[in-house]
Amino acid sequence: MTSMETDVASSSRVVIPGESLFPSAEDLRPGKGTYELHGHIYSSLLGYVYVREDTTDSRNIRVIEVRRNEERHQHVSPHIGAIVTAKVINIGPRYAKCQLLSVEDTILGGDYTALLRKEDIRSTERDKIEISECVLPGDILLARVISFGDTVTSFLISTAEEQLGVVMATGETGEKMMTKDWNTVQGVETGRVETRKIAKVPNLNLHSTTKAK
Known about the structure:
Structural class: mainly beta
Number of helices: 1
Strand content: over 45%
Order of helices and strands: EEEEEEEEEEEEEEEEH
């Protein structure tokens, strides 16, 4: 058996964990940094998409990979007004502490943190917000930088806009969750339903767990 592998395409667009990359197909195979679930290939990393050609037994297979390419890191810093990708580290009654992963389409090389305050999660009914019903540790968010924090590497972020919020959820027990609708996520294995402040972006594959049944 012989195999020839060649990088045939790469993308400058940053993808986030849980983002749908391609529909499943006979000539596509998930590689490093990706996984296949319910008829789609998803990213399991924050990074860049690579399509690798793998010729095995005269079959042309395209292997989809996501790589954290250190050489492609640029020297940028978060700034007020920027859209950032963030991972929730822990939550309290007043705010969620997050690690900033990227600014727009650039992966951050430094250690930047942010606070998502209770009043900055939604634009309505702010007095009724419970942080644990909107975000949980392990969730990946799209957010906007609204202010500087207490240090040069800390910021305040907001998910109040409709297109901002959770894009990949991790359940209370650590289970991977899929978006069920704009307010809830559902466990891939258990079917457990939890509430979130979901980002209204078109590639979240709503009801994907339901369609797979």
